[in-house]
Amino acid sequence: MIKYLERLHEIGIFTLDDVCAMTGNMHSAQQLMQNYVKKGLVGSIRRGLYCVNDLSTKTPVANKFEIGSAIAEDAYISYHSALEYHGFAHQMTFEVQVSTSKRISDFTHNGLDYKIFRSYSNKYVETPLLGKTRVSNLERTVIDCIDNIDRVGGLEELVHCISAISLLNSSKMLDYLDGINKSFLYQKAGFILQYFKENMLLDDDFIKTCKEKGALHPKYLTNDRNESNFYHKDWKLYGPQNLLSYLEQGNYENV
């Protein structure tokens, strides 16, 4: 019993198959996990996936980003959760956003809701530090969030998050945009990031390319017509008259 627990503490997050490899058969593995879970030594993340608990607090030894990254071989932290990982989330939430090519249902673990999104590419997904977390890099995260503003918590939260970023690589963002090849996304990305061009040290060509490859017909930045109520002729885009106004009115505390 103890020898298995010591080994599992070295792994942190593991599958039932991992336990089976230790015990020699699936029946023993299942019994061992039932016993460990009952005693609070191990927590069940979702079917077949477990995490060792701290012996004193009975809480997971792995953080939410590590747990999210472990739900599938290609899973990675994305959208607002990726902004949080990189240190640029304005508001904290009880949701962990994970992307993967696998069909996995949303689940709740240790008081957090894990929201699973379908991913079609692992481009610009990185494994920083000790290799226990996979996360979209900052450039991809910003573009993904602009592509799906609702997954960031809305335009105001997006603007607050982006305003805190001091440097983005223009070449990486254009390369990622080229891979997606959506005219509306070029349009949205250029329109939003133009406000932060100097702060982020973006190349002039980035804004120019986004404008050239943008949609040919007028679009709405968001589905809220009261929010996207001003027509920006040079971008062929309806949006707020001044995006930076959110920074003036958004002096609320993190929750």
In round numbers, the mean pLDDT is 94
Question: SSE order, as H and E?
Answer: HEHHEEHEHEEEEEHHHHHHEEEH
The separation of the N and C termini measures 42 Å
Question: What proportion of the residues form beta strands (DSSP E)?
Answer: 15-25%
The count of strands amounts to 12
Helix percent band:
40-55%
Radius of gyration, rounded?
A: 22 Å
Arrangement of strands in the largest sheet: 4-5-7-6
What structural category do the secondary elements indicate?
A: alpha+beta
Shape designation: elongated
Largest sheet data: 4 strands, mixed
Low-pLDDT runs of 5+ residues are 250-255
User: What count of helical segments does DSSP give?
Assistant: 12
What would you call the quaternary organization? single chain
Q: Your description of this structure?
A:
The chain has helices spanning 2-11, 16-23, 26-39, 64-69, 79-86, 138-147, 155-163, 170-180, 183-193, 197-200, 204-212, 245-249; strands at 13-15, 42-46, 49-52, 76-77, 95-100, 107-109, 112-118, 125-126, 135-136, 219-220, 230-232, 237-239. It has 255 residues and is of the alpha+beta class. The strands form 4 sheets. It has a 4-stranded mixed β-sheet. Strand 6 (107-109) and strand 7 form a beta hairpin. Helix 5 packs antiparallel against helix 6 and helix 9 packs antiparallel against helix 11 (204-212). The radius of gyration is 22 Å and the shape is elongated. The protein starts with a helix and ends in a 6-residue tail after the last helix.
